[in-house]
Design a protein that fits this description.
Layout lengths: L1 H9 L2 H17 L22
Organism: Hungatella hathewayi WAL-18680
Protein name: Cyclic lactone autoinducer peptide
Amino acid sequence: MKKVLNKIIKLSPVALVNMMAIMLVVENVNVACAWFMHQPEVPESAKKFIK
């Protein structure tokens, strides 16, 4: 765990923001929309993250 934390600390802030964005995409692709009247289309590039 310490090795992973050291690698993350050494990354640039831009790389950390990119990692967080990808994590949000993965989370949101696998969850239904909270507004039951509107379920937006999933982009083709995000479909590869569906479990």
